[in-house]
Amino acid sequence: MLQTPALIMASYASLSLILPLKIRLFYKILGVGIIFLCALKYHFYARMGGILSPDLPSWLIVIMEAAFGSLIIGSFICLIKDLLFVLLFILRKCSLIKLKPKLFKLNVCVIIFALIFGFYGTCMQFFTPHINHETIEIKNLDKDFDGFKIAQLSDLHVGPLLKHEFMQKVVAAVNNEEVDLTVITGDLVDGRVEKLINEFRSLKDIKSPYGVLAVTGNHEYYSGSFAWIKALENFNVRFLQNEHVNLHKGNGTLTVGGINDGRSYGNELDKVFADAGKHTRVFLAHKPKDGVKAVDADLILTGHTHGGTMLFAGPLVADYNDGFVSGRYELENRVMYVSNGTGIWSGFSCRFLVPPEITIFTLKKA
């Protein structure tokens, strides 16, 4: 399924960037060959252990991901370039302008730009994610929870590329914010427990007094969700499986509920806040389309979309997620936040103007 769009992009990039140039046939064949080699990433992954967790050296995956990211960025820029060329052609025919850009220089600039941002967008996943602060005002918040801080991690995707060193940076960043509670909204992992569990050992070092609460994502389903839930409990992570917990501070209560990703166990929304009482409610879900159903929650935290990964892909990703893709959405009597993701899936790991994030929410009484 993923390979077909990649081949379409490669065909278009070849037609736009390489074939129109007045260069020797050998160089045209070479250029087209390189473009299609970039597009065959998923084909190689499928033959080397699978798309989810290919059995390849990390450095080779980074190169393949960067090359594929460059192809996507380059194809988008080509679309803009070609539309401008059509507009210029019409304007010249109407004798309105005489401008005729040099195709060779322009195409070389497109290739260089795409390569730079393709490699940068892929390598940035190894940096400490951006810290984003959000203040959430809630009318019925108990005064003892005024100023309560929640750190949201989402879409960590620990696996072929992101490992223990990345988790150490994330944990250090969370601890530096001195939060009260840490939540993880799904897609923690890409791979099996026996291969990757040791990469999560830093989770034990998170210093949030009210612990670490999590929900499953679709990648837990792919990786063996039953085994992962059991294994991560040893690192002080509690999964909310269509249920809630009540947190107490002074005389106040905060209810945090979480829903399973539908592919993992089946999500049962009506069970999450059953007998929860009329306290402030925070709802955790992996997918925005599951989160938006929680009409009785005050704050809804989700992920899954990676913020669209690339800025120009945002509208397409939003279309598959009920219109939600990144950031804060003010809904009727509630707020929903869709994280850009703290990590990134190694099968589509180039970000373009959509930085990874750790989000810190400060609850305030309205």
Description:
By secondary structure, this protein is α/β, with parallel strands linked by helices. The protein contains twelve helices and twelve strands.
Known CATH architecture of the largest domain: 4-Layer Sandwich
Domain module count: 2
Strand content: 15-25%
Helix fraction bin: 25-40%
Largest sheet: 6 strands, mixed
Shape verdict: elongated
Oligomer: single chain
CATH superfamily of the largest domain: Metallo-dependent phosphatases
* Distance between the first and last residues' Cα: 47 Å
What is the count of β-strands? Answer: 12
Structural class: alpha/beta
Major sheet strand order: 1-12-2-3-4-5
- Would you list the SSEs in sequence order as H and E? HHHHHEEHEHEHHEEEHEHEHEEE
Q: What's the CATH first level of the largest domain?
A: Alpha Beta
Low-confidence stretches: none
* Rg over alpha carbons: 23 Å
User: What is the third-level CATH name, the topology of the largest domain?
Assistant: Purple Acid Phosphatase, chain A, domain 2
